[in-house]
């Protein structure tokens, strides 16, 4: 800067003019960028070459192609709408320090904390210890460890509960109780319902096995129930192992988008939103009036949430109250989690949406519920789009580029660019000083969404056709820092054929990239590369982790089934 400032202004002007002339020469050169743009786009916009003629086969391919693109674009526009709702209604945000009313200390309500677990011996002590250190009067407080385990977790859990009940590690005897079931009826929903039968609390807090509630959590939440009509308060998940790997960093961004913009936008706008199954507190009366925990869907939390809100109960979301949890560190575990959520939401939509549409709720509330509960239908649509993409590209290569600019570009902006802007905004809200680093993760974040298409499509189709499956929990490994190794290999899920299908589809899209290059259709290449990267990333990572699992567990027991309960 100092050297440039010392140069006379006339010399600097000549310098800039010479470089602008050089750039203009490059654009106008026979083989420059300008020549490419004129020969492939500008001239064809005004002079359609007329070589293409419509036929029935092309129409049969392009009509479903555009229908899928338009539907995906509507869901993409909905993401923009959530961002708009978030900022437009910022004055309606709830804060832990500003409840409408407060309980007197002598009138604090009795709280039952429910901890549903299943075969999760490696994280129980961390969970129990955190709950026993919550700041709340012990005469109005109890902890239920709801254990459905079928392995050595039962012995570990009994021992931990007995130790804390007697007093340990600087703590006085704690009101913690152990409840074990052997029939596992209803999975997690059944365990919560069973615990509710003997619970003393008028308020029910729920934490899954991988969560570590901070000591102040209860006091930050409890006073919001002093407001009449509040049925549930949800707090924001944070991440114990966010920086463990590249995968966990991308997962954290995905969840941040949900908790900041989806929950934030919906709660501020006063429309229905859902309890996330953990890190939240319910009024017992709201659970009972809504019909209690039901296990006919895999997302019993969302199901109960909508039933309670249809009964008139109000929900609050406290974005400033954090509850850290463990992210899945393996691709197969992450797929299990996402597939369960995808299937459960579609099941809930089939069950709840007819009732919502018949209710007296405002139209915008019904519309938002529709978008929320049916969003995962985009995964089967992505399969259709993937199948039609290459034929559509070949057909449309014979048409002029005007259609690409007027039709494809807006659809692409609505369906794809909305994803990147959605997560950028969420990171800017949480990390105003470092949010720009998210740009580095955006291609991989979008690719990961593409890579989940196969497993989530299978889950969505099972939900649509009424195929039942067990509540497949996500394994908890108690791995928080880089370099730490998992000790819970036996809880890993069998890989199956899906990773190989993902690799094959990735190869198909690699072929579309080659075709785009060969036809000089370079502007579609970045979009196609997202598909290649997504399918290959999820497929290869699943296979590599499976190979490491087999090499590292020779001679030890490997559980092949997905294990229900947990997030």
TrEMBL record:
Official protein name in the record: Glucomannan 4-beta-mannosyltransferase
Segment forming the signal sequence: none
Localisation: Golgi apparatus membrane
Pfam families, alphabetized: Glyco_tranf_2_3
Keywords: Cell wall biogenesis/degradation, Glycosyltransferase, Golgi apparatus, Membrane, Transferase, Transmembrane, Transmembrane helix
Residue ranges crossing the lipid bilayer per the database entry: 20-37, 57-77, 377-398, 404-425, 495-517, 523-544
Gene Ontology molecular functions: glucomannan 4-beta-mannosyltransferase activity
Topology class, membrane: Multi-pass membrane protein
SUPFAM superfamilies: Nucleotide-diphospho-sugar transferases
Enzyme class: transferase
E.C. numbers: 2.4.1.32
Species: Granulicella mallensis (strain ATCC BAA-1857 / DSM 23137 / MP5ACTX8)
Chief location: Golgi
InterPro entries found in the cross-reference section: Nucleotide-diphossugar_trans
PANTHER family cross-referenced by the UniProt entry: GLUCOMANNAN 4-BETA-MANNOSYLTRANSFERASE 9, XYLOGLUCAN GLYCOSYLTRANSFERASE 2-RELATED
């Amino acid at each position: 800067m100092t050297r440039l400032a010392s140069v006379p202004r006339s010399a600097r002007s000549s310098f800039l003019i010479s470089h602008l002339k050089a750039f203009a020469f490059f654009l106008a050169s026979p083989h420059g960028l300008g020549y490419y743009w004129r020969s492939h786009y500008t001239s064809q916009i005004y002079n359609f070459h007329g070589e293409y003629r419509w036929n029935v086969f092309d129409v049969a391919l392009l009509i479903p192609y555009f229908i899928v693109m338009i539907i995906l674009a509507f869901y993409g526009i909905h993401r923009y709408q959530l961002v708009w709702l978030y900022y437009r209604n910022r004055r309606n945000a709830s804060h832990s320090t500003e409840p409408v009313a407060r309980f007197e200390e002598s009138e604090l309500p009795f709280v039952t904390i429910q901890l549903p677990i299943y075969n999760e011996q490696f994280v129980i002590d961390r969970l129990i210890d955190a709950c026993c250190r919550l700041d709340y009067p012990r005469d109005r407080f109890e902890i239920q460890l709801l254990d459905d385990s079928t392995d050595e977790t039962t012995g570990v859990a009994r021992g931990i509960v007995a130790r804390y009940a007697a007093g340990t590690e600087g703590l006085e005897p704690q009101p913690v109780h152990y409840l074990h079931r052997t029939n596992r009826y209803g999975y997690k929903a059944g365990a919560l319902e069973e615990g509710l039968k003997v619970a003393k609390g008028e308020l029910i807090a729920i934490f899954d096995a991988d969560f570590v509630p901070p000591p102040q959590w209860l006091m930050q939440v409890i006073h919001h129930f002093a407001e009449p009509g509040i049925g549930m308060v949800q707090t924001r998940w944070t991440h114990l192992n966010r920086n463990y790997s590249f995968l966990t960093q991308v997962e954290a961004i995905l969840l941040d988008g949900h908790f900041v913009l989806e929950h934030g936008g919906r709660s501020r706008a006063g429309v229905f939103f859902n309890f996330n199954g953990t890190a939240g507190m319910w009024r017992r009366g709201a659970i009972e009036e809504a019909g209690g925990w039901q296990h006919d869907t895999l997302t019993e939390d969302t199901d109960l949430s909508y039933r309670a809100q249809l009964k008139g109960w109000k929900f609050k979301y406290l974005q400033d109250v954090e509850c850290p949890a463990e992210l899945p560190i393996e691709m197969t575990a992450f797929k299990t989690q996402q597939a369960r959520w995808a299937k459960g939401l579609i099941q809930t939509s089939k069950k709840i949406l007819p009732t919502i549409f018949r209710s007296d709720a405002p139209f915008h509330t019904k519309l938002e519920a529709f978008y929320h509960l049916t969003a995962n239908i985009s995964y089967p649509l992505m399969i259709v789009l993937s199948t039609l993409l290459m034929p559509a590209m070949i057909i449309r290569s014979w048409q002029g580029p005007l259609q690409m600019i007027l039709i494809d570009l807006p659809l692409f902006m609505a369906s794809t660019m909305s994803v990147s802007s959605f997560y950028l905004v969420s990171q800017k809200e949480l990390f105003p000083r470092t949010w720009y680093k998210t740009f580095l993760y955006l291609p991989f974040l979008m690719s990961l969404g593409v890579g989940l298409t196969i497993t989530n499509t299978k889950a969505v189709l099972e939900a649509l056709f009424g195929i039942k499956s067990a509540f497949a929990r996500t394994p908890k490994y108690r791995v928080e820092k880089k370099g730490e190794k998992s000790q819970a290999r036996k809880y890993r899920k069998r890989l199956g054929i899906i990773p190989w299908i993902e690799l094959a589809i990735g190869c198909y899209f690699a072929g579309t990239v080659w075709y785009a290059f060969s036809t000089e259709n370079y502007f579609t290449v970045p979009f196609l590369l997202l598909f290649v990267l997504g399918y290959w990333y999820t497929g290869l990572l699943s296979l590599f982790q499976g190979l490491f699992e087999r090499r590292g567990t020779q001679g030890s027991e490997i559980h092949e089934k997905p294990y229900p309960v947990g997030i």
